[in-house]
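DM from R.C. (forwarded with permission)

"hey, sorry to bug you on a friday — could you get me a structure for this? deadline for the figure draft is monday and I only need the backbone to look sensible"
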Amino acid sequence: MKECLVIAHRGASAYVKGNTSKSIIIARKFGADGVELDIRTTLDKKLICFHDSYIYQKGSKKFISEMDINSLKDFDNEILEVEDALELSRDFKIIILDIKDVNISHELLNIVKKLNLTDKVLFVTGYLNILNELKDLEINKGFWFSNKIDISYIAKKYNLSVIKPNYKIFNEEVITLANSLNLEVFVWTVNDERLALKLREQGVNAIITDVPDRIKHAFETL
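My reply, with the result:
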């Protein structure tokens, strides 16, 4: 059976706040093969690991893109900048950066190159406008989706190396198509051990999970 990687979704996010140094460190202790982090930009163009586009502060909604890094860190001292996150993640086999904002891909790639991590990093997004920005970048690229789409067209147009279907829409036809296009298949977000084992048997290349310890243990014992 080919290797199926266990990738920690936002780090070990079932146990601590995701996209933080703690979540990355714990995921590494749990033996995860990789980590997936969400990337956004601040008002002063700092790239950070954060999933949502906004925070609630004193009862009002504030967008991340409208706050500078110092204001964000005053609100949440666990806010993690991308360069620090990459350094913490250096020992993983793979680092997935899920790009949530437009016009940050080139700067993100510059940071990855500066840290000599190009061979480990995968850029992914679920947005076609961002995927268009990634198209000609010299780095591995993936697309996540949770609805049925013409993945063959998208994969060819945007030079993908990975597709990321939600587990709810995954089936063996996806594997067949991926194999025909020379694509790897990473399935998200899988927190059930039996489902993870079934997906491994079906030939997926990676499981993205909030509980990397449990999935890793299942893979090692069954």
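R.C.: lifesaver. The mean pLDDT is 96.
me: no worries. Residues 111 and 199 are 34 Å apart (CA to CA).
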